[in-house]
Amino acid sequence: MRKKESTLVNMVVVLFVITLVAGLTLGFVNDLTLAPKARARLAKKVNALQSVLPPFDNDPVAGFMRIKADTGRDSIELYPAFRDGVFIGGAATGSSQKGYSGPVRLLVGFHPDGRINNIEVLEQKETPGLGTKMKGDQFLRQFRGKNPSAFDLRAQKDGGQVDALAGATISTRAFAEAAREACDAFAENKDTLSEPNN
Amino acid sequence: MPEKLSPKQNFLKGIVKENPVFVMLLGMCPTLGVTTSAFNGLGMGLATLFVLLMSNIVVSLIKSQVPAKVRIPAFIVIIAAFVTVAEMVLEAYIPFLYEQLGIFIPLIVVNCLILGRAEAFASKNNLAVSIVDALGMGAGFVIALTALGATRELLGNGSLFEFRLVPEDASTLILFILPPGAFIALAYLAILFNKLTRKLT
User: Fold this and answer.
1) For site-directed labelling of B1, which of A3, A71, A152, B52 has its Cα 20 to 30 A away?
2) In angstroms, rounded to a whole number, what is the distance separating the alpha carbons of residues A119 and A103?
3) In degrees to the nearest 10, what's the CA dihedral of B79, B81, B82, B83?
4) A122 vs A100, A106, A193, B200, CA distance in Å?
């Protein structure tokens, strides 16, 4: 095949045209996917909230508040849930940097009296087959209906009441720390959260 | 040009004789990294197939306009553009897969299979032949990644395409989900593949 001569001018022109076309295409596709991307992210958040909260009829994302965490680097997000105008619970995120190979982030749903309704793992990079079992029902069900004021949210090895996932309890400790952060945040901010239209 | 291949031979060479994963051992980074389940392998394979097809088409169309000295940067820009398109579309419409594949989507840019086909094939052949080449190579990649993902998921997690074959708390060979398992599974699949295809040809 005939190879095109490389001169400074044609190299510059060809690269310029290619990057220009590529840039314009990407800008166009970005515009097209902007709305669906935002929708997908919102849907994920709402799905997680629905799985941890009692049935609600308000929009928790609209009443969402953010507070600074004293320990973690992540801020804590709090979501209120109402049904027929009555405060029926709330959800709080909690995170821990002590996971086996990355942070562990949880979304914990509460009843108004502080009992845990359900927990959803938002992010984890634990060892597949060991630490990842924290997403499984067998591990999570020990928390449901428990009140953190009476249920010691620490691994049994550390004197708490959380049944460990595996012998080394690394993932369990991270999970428990993240859950404690969420519980404390909910307990402290329950009153602000339960005010309608805050 | 080397010996002429019929379209059928051209397509099949990507799957059997020059299978990118089992024979040429190209694109090992996504091959080893994301194949923890059959679904992930299939998703990664299809994303790569899309980028490979589009870049082969464009490279084949503009090959006579690109000066030889800047052909590699030109190809890389084209490939990177299509990878970014794939990334944005995945995030918008298949967020689940987007999360699972994570950093490996942008890394399709450096998959040497794609640049390799652009440089070694599409830049020397016409459009129709390049499309068939991309489809064959892409199909070979999809098949290989899905097979590897299925093997690892089956042994390591006791399920196939998320369908559980053993109870949730059964002990499985976790090793195969972990990184070392990727190397072990790939090696045995490559042996098996080469044994079978040698007999066929």
Assistant:
1) B52
2) 16
3) 80
4) 16, 5, 22, 48
Q: CB–CB of A78/A91 below 8 Å?
A: yes
Per-residue pLDDT of B123-143, as tens digits, reads 888 888 999 999 999 999 999
Chain A residues touching B156 at Cβ < 8 A: 128-129
Cβ atoms of B193 and B22 within 8 Å: the answer is yes
On whether residue B12 sits in a domain, the answer given is no
Which residues on B lie below 8 Å from A4 (Cβ)? 64-68
A14 neighbourhood in chain B, CB within 8 Å: 65-67, 70, 74
Q: DSSP 3-state helix, strand, coil percentages of chain A (rounded to 5)?
A: 40, 20, 40
* Residue B162 covered by a domain: yes
Q: Is residue B147 part of a domain?
A: yes
Q: Decide if B159 touches A, using CB distance below 8 A.
A: no
Residue A35: HSE in the Cβ half-sphere, 13 Å Cα cutoff: 3
Compare CB distances from B88 to A33, A44, A128 and report the shortest one's residue: A33
User: Which of the four pLDDT bands, split at 50, 70 and 90, describes residue B144?
Assistant: very high
Number of structural domains in chain B? 1
Do residues B65 and A17 make contact, with C-beta atoms less than 8 angstroms apart? Answer: no
What is the domain extent for residue B39?
Answer: 23-200
Taking an 8 Å cut-off on Cβ atoms, the answer to whether A138 and B168 are in contact is yes
Q: Which of A175, A185, A193 is nearest to A97 (CA)?
A: A175
| B36 touches A128 (CB < 8 A) | yes
Residue B184 structure tokens: 């072990």
Are A95 and A125 within 8 A, CB to CB? no
Residue B63, class by beta-carbon neighbours within 10 Å (0-12 exposed, 13-18 middle, 19+ buried)? buried
Residue A157 token pair: 């090895």
Domain membership of residue B141 (yes or no) is: yes
What's the rounded Cα separation, in Å, for the pair B156 and B178? 8
**Residue A1: is its pLDDT beyond 50?**
no
**With an 8 Å Cβ cutoff, are B67 and A4 in contact?**
yes
| Whether B77 and A15 lie within 8 Å, measured CB to CB | yes
